């Protein structure tokens, strides 16, 4: 059975064959698509398997009566417009039929005009019902969409890392997220609470300024606020007025960002700059001091003394140059502007050439070098200048901080994927508190034994940076008075 | 002529300062770290202390000055600074900086002599 979707569909349920056929013909001539059923049971079957626009149902049928057919169709398709046709109309059946959802009554016998008129009324009703249904559905969909949109925005605001607070002109809270509580270090807020006085003074000031001004601009005012002392929690509050649709002021929105890390970096940076300034100024001051006394004729410095002071100045200027070079290296390493020339580097060769390079210093202190390097160690892929720098710094420390006639033990072997290189000296060693600061920039162990040892305080910091840039690590072990061991783990490159 | 203690970790600064002050007839005792500095001051009771602000640790010259004052050692202190004063590391700001004058490195002989004379005269006047 086919249902024509273009035409209006009408179902006729009647056991009287001639009436059924005449009605069908009449309605088809009127342009409707008609299906008919010859008994109640078939009527229910057809009427509940397809949705008809209109159903005309005979009341009295031998198997199932029209009311039963009506209620079956209505319960499946409530929008099908149903007429009850009967010759035995009674007040009670009319009431029952209406109660079960019949749209109207067509008394039998009916004229073609009567039938067509009723059907047209039914079609109108059907269109109204469908339109209402469509509007209802549309409204529900839109409400759902709005609800989804709202909950989406809410989810976004709740989960973003910045705190959000909205406050109206009465100082009442109209929106907040949990990040805001966290950044204000406040345990709880309730919507509608008068919270403005609980906020930091910096925010209250901005709020007062915005609400008391005659005209307001949609402009953001920012303030940095220390929420917890000692820079433990620093936030930036961005306060923006919000306008009503008519342009009047509605309140303010406050966005809170956690800038604690920036503050910490800023502090580290300024400390570093002042350390550098101090380290640069110290040798300059010493040299300037010597020049001043040499130039000052009233001091009557002997030529021999003058020569000594000039030599000492020269030593300080050399160390100043070393310091500037180390600083440049660190800066290049941090900016990663240093061009690396990666090649296969044989650690054993690097160690040997470094020892050769430092031969003069080794001889001066009469230091014995004891090497134990595993044969056929795999080479590593690295910049040979950087690896040489690592060993030059470590070995020159081992010489500088060694005692006269001391020893330096160098061992190297492979352990799993790493080359392990140890450099041990028999020098002055370190106190535990000195060990902790060892890799800090400009840190130099200062005690009665280190007084006459020069250095920039950057050597080990550079070593650590290089080793870590190759995904290795450096460890230090030391006994004060007995010596220090540095252990380097360098991964063996594998492609 | 006075006895002056110079406490500074830079031997070149100690030597240059000593030469300048000796030329004016002062006697000099020196120390290169706060502990030794404390010792030479308490043992020799100098007329003036020249104290470097930063030796083993940033601001340890300040801490030594505070220690002197807490222990009622009122000897005038001339403090050598480089830059630490300007950046204030973790120096305890709640206590007054208990020094009598500052001089910033590098120091000219003339400036050093003037500052030292001024402090020594101040002591004489107050006696």
Explain this structure to me?
- The complex is a heterodimer of chains A (495) and B (127).
- Chain A folds into 4 domains: 9-135, 3-Layer(aba) Sandwich (Rossmann fold); 160-258, 2-Layer Sandwich (Beta-Lactamase); 265-335, Helix Hairpins (Orthogonal Bundle), CATH 1.10.287; 342-491, Histidine kinase-like ATPase, C-terminal domain (Heat Shock Protein 90, 2-Layer Sandwich).
- Chain A has 14 helices and 17 strands.
- Chain A has helices spanning 17-29, 40-49, 66-76, 91-99, 112-159, 178-184, 201-212, 260-295, 303-335, 347-357, 359-364, 384-400, 432-437, 459-469, and strands at 9-13, 33-37, 54-58, 81-86, 104-107, 163-168, 173-176, 221-228, 233-243, 249-258, 342-345, 368-373, 380-383, 407-415, 418-425, 473-479, 483-491.
- In chain A, the strands form 4 sheets. A 5-stranded parallel beta sheet of chain A has the order 2-1-3-4-5, with helices on both faces.
- In chain A, strand 4 (81-86), helix 4 (91-99) and strand 5 form a beta-alpha-beta unit.
- In chain A, 26% of the residues are buried.
- Chain B has 127 residues and is an alpha/beta fold.
- Chain B is 44% helix and 19% strand.
- Chain B has helices spanning 11-22, 34-44, 60-70, 84-87, 109-126, and strands spanning 3-7, 27-31, 48-52, 77-81, 101-104.
- The model of chain B is unreliable at 84-95 (pLDDT under 50).
- The interface between A and B is medium-sized, with 28 and 27 residues.
